[in-house]
Structure formats: structure tokens, C-alpha cells
């Protein structure tokens, strides 16, 4: 079965809108990738300041291929120099990130 890769992004309250806007404008960057199955950006409702970037893939290999290829396009402009600098990139909205990996062992959908 599939594998799930969740990127956990720590986002200060005043940066939430910036983060969501950036994802909204880049969602297309992953959709056409081989083995890509699902993406969700999960906004925390309570108890944490961490957003979950949920992605599901046919295999670990498909995920690794995306990471070493078009992942870079999805992440252009997300880190580096200060906003407005010539040649610089906008400051990240997230202050930290951690990657979680899972394999799907059971699943169900509505009948
Ligand atoms: C599970 C796979 C993913 C990994 C390992 C990953 C990695 C990262 C990392 C390390 C950051 C924070 C550093 C930075 O801002 O450059 C980040 C932020 C971001 N990622 Fe991803 N990402 C993943 C999935 C995705 C997907 C599928 C998309 C597009 C739909 C995406 C779009 C973005 C955007 C827009 C940011 C916002 C940066 C910000 O303003 O803070 N990421 N990602």
C-alpha cells in the first residue's frame, strides 16, 4: 500500500495567512508527479502552532524522485534572503520543519 509523508511546519500566528497563500499559489507543483496520490494542508484548530503538510505516494521511490526533482519547483522562493532583496527570496513563514514518514496499513472510504 501507499506511504504517507507529513511535513510538520511550525508557523507563528501572524504568519498563517502568508503560509496559506504560498501553498495556494503552489499546489499545482506536486499534482502531476508520478506516484503522487494526495495532498492536504492541515491548519491547526487548537493545541499546537504546527501545520501538517500531508502527502501520500504510491511508493517511497516515487516520493524520493519528487524530492530530488520537482520538489524544488514547489519550494522555490521559500527560504533564503530577506524579501525585496535583489535576487533574494521571501523570508519563510515557517520557523521550523520536521518530516514524518508512515506506511498505510489499513484504510477505508465511504461506501
Ligand atoms: C512531504 C513533502 C514535503 C517536504 C519534505 C517539504 C519541505 C519543506 C520545508 C523544509 C519547508 C520549510 C523551509 C522553507 O520554507 O523553505 C517547506 C515549506 C513550504 N512548502 Fe514544502 N515540503 C513538502 C511538501 C510540500 C508540497 C506538496 C507543497 C506544495 C503543494 C509544498 C510547498 C511549500 C510551501 C509553499 C512552503 C512555505 C514556506 C514558507 O513560507 O514558510 N511543500 N516545505
UniProtKB/TrEMBL annotation:
InterPro entries: ABM_dom (IPR007138), Dimeric_a/b-barrel (IPR011008), Heme-degrading_MO (IPR050404)
Organism of this sequence: Streptomyces lateritius
Keyword Oxidoreductase appears in the UniProt entry: yes
Segments of this protein annotated with the region Disordered: 69-111
Protein name: Antibiotic biosynthesis monooxygenase family protein
Domain ABM: 3-94
Key words, A-Z: Monooxygenase, Oxidoreductase
Biased composition (Polar residues): 95-111
EC class name: oxidoreductase
Start-end of Gly residues biased regions: 78-87
EC number: 1.14.-.-
Keyword Methyltransferase among UniProt keywords: no
Gene3D superfamilies per the UniProt record, alphabetical: 3.30.70.100
Record-linked Pfam families: ABM (PF03992)
Annotated GO MF terms: monooxygenase activity
Amino acid at each position: 500500500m501507499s506511504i504517507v509523508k507529513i511535513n510538520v511546519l511550525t508557523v507563528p500566528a501572524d504568519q498563517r495567512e502568508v503560509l496559506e497563500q504560498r501553498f495556494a499559489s503552489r499546489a499545482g507543483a506536486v499534482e502531476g508527479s508520478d506516484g503522487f496520490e494526495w495532498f492536504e494542508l492541515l491548519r491547526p484548530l487548537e493545541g499546537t502552532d504546527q501545520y501538517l503538510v500531508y502527502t501520500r505516494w504510491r511508493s517511497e521511490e516515487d516520493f524520493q524522485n519528487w524530492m530530488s526533482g520537482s520538489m524544488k519547483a514547489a519550494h522555490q522562493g521559500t527560504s533564503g534572503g530577506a524579501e525585496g532583496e535583489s535576487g533574494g527570496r521571501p523570508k519563510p513563514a515557517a520557523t521550523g520543519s520536521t518530516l514524518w514518514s508512515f506506511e498505510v496499513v489499513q484504510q477505508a472510504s465511504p461506501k
